[in-house]
Design brief:
This protein has 90 residues and is α+β, with helices and mostly antiparallel strands. It contains two helices and three strands; from the N terminus they run βαβαβ. A three-stranded antiparallel sheet has the order 2-1-3, with helices on one face.
């Protein structure tokens, strides 16, 4: 019987504070990287769920709520920073 179980899963991304929007701005800065403070964006925070074979699940939320990140963690594409993911079956 196929199952997906997430226990206390948390996922964070470190996002840089400065980017070049155009080639002109990059050239004028000389492709220099200034030290910037990276922001930490929490995509998932302490998520626990279990999905058994035959169950159907719908993900609903605003843009940036973490729906795609949750699917990527369940698929094994993103490893969680905390917690565990157990999948049995495919």
């Amino acid at each position: 019987m196929a199952t997906i179980e997430l226990t206390h899963v948390s996922l964070e991304f470190h996002v840089g504070a400065e980017r070049h929007d155009t080639l002109k701005s990059a050239v004028s800065q000389g492709f220099r990287r200034r030290r910037t403070v990276a922001r930490v964006v929490t995509a998932l925070n302490d998520v626990t769920l279990s999905i058994r074979s035959g169950e159907r699940v719908g993900l609903i939320g605003h843009n940036g709520a973490g729906k795609s990140s949750l699917l990527r963690v369940m698929a094994g594409i993103y490893p969680p920073q905390r917690g565990g993911v157990a999948t049995d079956g495919h």
